[in-house]
Amino acid sequence: MTKDQLFDQIKKKESYLCVGLDTDIKKIPNHLLKYDDPIFEFNKRIIDATHEYCVAYKPNLAFYESLGAKGWESLQKTLEYIPEDIFTIADAKRGDIGNTSGLYARAFFEQMNFDSITIAPYMGEDSVKPFLSFENKWVILLALTSNVGSDDFQQLMIGNTDQHLFEKVLEKSQEWGGPEQLMYVVGATKSDMFSKIRTIVPDHFLLVPGVGAQGGSLKEVSEFGMNKQCGLLVNSSRGIIYASNGEDFWEEAGKAALQIQVEMKDYLNNYL
Ligand SMILES: O=c1ccn([C@@H]2O[C@H](COP(=O)(O)O)[C@@H](O)[C@H]2O)c(=O)[nH]1
């Protein structure tokens, strides 16, 4: 999916919501455990209930890989079930020396047909470039993450400059790819940094986790992070998929997604 096509979807659905498919076998309702593939059955119902209100789905690989071969199967089936016009993100946080990164890229872009993958930038250019050589596929580079530990490295000042390490990541990585194939992860819990980030990457999309369960503010992210093509994919995982753990879980997930979409519609009208 191209940047313009993603923006078209955002305008059509009046939404920049990404639903996180962090499907935990220990958290899904008991009645699904009778199925052969409970994870897929859960995801299928979540997708049915939320697809009208979101423009992206983001399965986090940890939830699938932790189940071994069966988890990979559930992931593949889930990916195939997601409607064609919805952007897909493999939240895998990969990155290694070049030849290894190339194989990770083939795993997620060829074996599986994800639109994008999250990548850790720590190993530098040769670890990221192999992911950028695939047409119509996106790299989403971790810049300023939502967790407390982002203080440890990402928010360190570099040498005698007034630049944080995450700002250097934003600046340097623009030599590797443009806004048509690179996005950045910026946590919703870091909304005070969005204005500064927009001065460095005015045109790129930002994937923003951290609203809902982590307490980030959708309003602040939208006010300070939106650009002329929206430029935001705001993720909520637990806040949507575990809105209820009863038999009605999918209905409640649909309502939780709708509630965010309605708020997003307002912000698109106000800030776009
Ligand atoms: O900085 C980051 C990067 C990734 N994540 C991931 O996003 C979701 C958030 O889930 P919630 O339940 O909405 O809190 C999850 O998959 C994280 O691993 C992040 O939170 N922060």
Automatic annotation (TrEMBL):
Reactions accelerated catalytically: orotidine 5'-phosphate + H(+) = UMP + CO2
Orotidine 5'-phosphate decarboxylase domain boundaries: 16-253
Record-linked SMART domains: OMPdecase
Origin: domain of life: Bacteria
Pfam families (alphabetical): OMPdecase
Pathway the protein takes part in: Pyrimidine metabolism; UMP biosynthesis via de novo pathway; UMP from orotate: step 2/2
GO molecular function: orotidine-5'-phosphate decarboxylase activity
Broadest EC class assigned to this enzyme: lyase
Gene3D superfamilies from the UniProt entry: Aldolase class I (3.20.20.70)
EC assignment: 4.1.1.23
Keywords associated with the record: Decarboxylase, Lyase, Pyrimidine biosynthesis
Family of this protein: Belongs to the OMP decarboxylase family. Type 2 subfamily.
Protein name per Swiss-Prot or TrEMBL: Orotidine-5'-phosphate decarboxylase
Protein source organism: Splendidivirga corallicola
Gene label: pyrF
